[in-house]
Amino acid sequence: MLPKALLSRGAALAALDLSLPVRTAQRAASSVTIPPPACMLQPLEVPTRYLFGPGPSNVSPRVLAAGGRPIIGHLHPEMYQIMNDIKKGIQYAFQTSNNMTLSMSGSGHTAMECAVFNTVEPGESVLVSINGVWGERVAEIAERMGGKVHTLVKSPGGHFTNEEIEKALAKHKPVLFFLTHGESSAGLVHPIDGIGDLCRKHNCLFLVDSVASLGAAPLLMDQQNIDILYTGSQKALNAPPGTAPISFNDRACHKMFNRKTKPVSYLLDMTHLSNYWGNDGKPARDYHHTGPVSGFFTLRESLAILAEKGLENSWRQHKEVAEYLWKGIEDLGLKLFIKDKDLRLPSVTTIAIPEGYNWRELLTYMMKHHQMEMTGGLGPSIGMVIRVGLMGYNCSKPNADKALAALADALKHCPKSKA
Amino acid sequence: MLPKALLSRGAALAALDLSLPVRTAQRAASSVTIPPPACMLQPLEVPTRYLFGPGPSNVSPRVLAAGGRPIIGHLHPEMYQIMNDIKKGIQYAFQTSNNMTLSMSGSGHTAMECAVFNTVEPGESVLVSINGVWGERVAEIAERMGGKVHTLVKSPGGHFTNEEIEKALAKHKPVLFFLTHGESSAGLVHPIDGIGDLCRKHNCLFLVDSVASLGAAPLLMDQQNIDILYTGSQKALNAPPGTAPISFNDRACHKMFNRKTKPVSYLLDMTHLSNYWGNDGKPARDYHHTGPVSGFFTLRESLAILAEKGLENSWRQHKEVAEYLWKGIEDLGLKLFIKDKDLRLPSVTTIAIPEGYNWRELLTYMMKHHQMEMTGGLGPSIGMVIRVGLMGYNCSKPNADKALAALADALKHCPKSKA
Predict the structure, then answer these.
(1) A5/B266 CB distance under 8 A
(2) A109/B290 Cβ within 8 A
(3) Are strands A228-230 and A205-209 parallel, antiparallel or unpaired?
(4) CB atoms < 10 A from the CB of B172, how many?
(5) Going by fewer Cβ within 10 Å, which terminus of chain B is more open, N or C?
(6) Which residues, including other chains, have CB under 8 Å from residue A396's CB and lie 6 or more apart?
(7) Which of A1, A140, A220 sits opposite B30 (nearest CB)?
(8) Which residues form the Aminotransferase class V domain (chains A, B) (predicted)?
(9) How confident is the model over A29-45, as pLDDT tens digits?
């Protein structure tokens, strides 16, 4: 059978000729017994959705177009230039001058594992603050690789005072302290000021997760003495998931490049990744793994959009739209899960589940009738909240109005239990 | 500054309103000190290339278009359907009925680490055959996670007899034996028949890397008793890099789901990944990590193209085009690195570096004057070969002619040393 679909749809790259001499009489020696699956002979179907949950958020046409461009090799000089641009774009977004700045070839969890695997050696003490799902994940990752994990725990929506943190630093003497800046499972933006200083005082690295907050809430890596910072591509940056910016300062580099043992993962070993990103000062970049070329195109484009817009404009935009959304939610008679305005994450708003309603029914209704995603809680916040995310490209008052209209409609049409 | 580029270029998704009330007088409390980088205010530039190296290969317009489609959430039912389709597409491409079939959210190295991390526990014996770079990588991965690694080594281009393999299996009693089917660094396709039986006899899992061979050379996972098989998206499948199909049979599942210790990586833990792919029989899929939505769109499309074309047609196409290329290379007076025709990988051809020539100059010449990528060796084969890949979408006689013309031109114009 000739590759019909290719021939009919492949005209744009005509230079790559496809005319194939196919002999139908000859049969390969080895025998295929499993036939082509019927589903694979159907076209790819993707519905249009308002992605107003905690991410992935909608990808702008400009970023989608970047992802649909013909690729080049992952080791071509032009790809290195694109990676250099990405590095500069991340430095701007993170507000850091760290040389050791790059993107992971994977989602935020890849960055999370990379940070822990490279800076902690088996047997070393790690302190993890848990006030939602992300701390739970880091504790599990650090435990698996042999770290001695200590935790500071609050229920979802809670946060830690600098006094609590310093007490735990003094007690557990960790090499690494983890904190989530944007706790998207609870809708909390955690205060950062002063914690980096405490970590320095106690000879500990300060690792911050900004997957849900980057570009949406003020964060200044260098000024706030954050030693390791990572984020994801699919939130306020509005690129498809699959890349994750990360940066290590000199303190972090000193720790991770003076290890006694190799990191347990070859794929996530920063010795190799730093070379792949041209950060190690060596003249040549060696082959380590094949980076997601199209993913890097989209990440570059999304970082370019942020640079054009300006970080402070982006922060202000998220704050204003979030405040508008919060007011609208309260006008509907709903309660916001995070009471203190200053602790509310501007990118992901958590609504306390209204009494008498089944949250799953509300979400299902909005998906069915408004093609709109909002989500429930995650990990410890399941059953406590409904989450609404308006991030980056999605962050506008008209979109907030759409979200509010869908919520109002769901509240009106979903049955309320007679408790 | 208004996001001009977004406003002017974002018309296609007009429903997602972008009108932003930006107040220029107000200033955020925290202060941005690092300005937007100049490079980020320049457009993304990507040259057009013939990717005739060992991969990534050119992506067809149809697959690129799939990657440029608006995304949906990674946990939407429609995404699960796309993942189910991908699973069926991989089962066809691998010729397996294994339920535990899925795609990694990462490149082939992610699949490599996943296979080793899940099936080996610290202290267990692993046997790795090394006849190029891939075995070296697996040995390093297994060593880092605490495996007792034994190796069978040949120089690049060499292969192992079943007798040699059985002797090593009997001696080292490994729980896992690794072999590369398509050794792209040397251009060798390794015989597979009988090895799976030997592994069963010696109570060992048979792990095969088919990153460079899948769809190009016959491989039948179930019939050949391969316990774990993985590949990459960016070779004969012609999707962008960033996804990696993998499959485990019941023997492999029994080993990996009856461990005493947890795998060292949370991200690559098959307990979680099997749930994410709906393979564990549980009614709900939990959030584990955010999969590369666009990457899965492209992988589905590339597997659909293979299903439409037919696996046997694809194998035949690669064989015919490779034979045509090999003859053309010999007609140029060049020597093929792998002498035995039956051991030559149809997707990636290795040419012995012609005497008197600097291989780097030849490659640079073709890139500069023909916009064509061929590559040198990799790992132990560096300085031994030039590699030409014509895979999937790129696999045609007219493309072979283009490659031969570029080679002839480079040989004519690059200076030959007077050795």
Answers:
(1) no
(2) yes
(3) parallel
(4) 18
(5) C
(6) A321, A390, B16, B17, B18, B19, B20
(7) A220
(8) 62-395
(9) 469 999 999 999 999 99
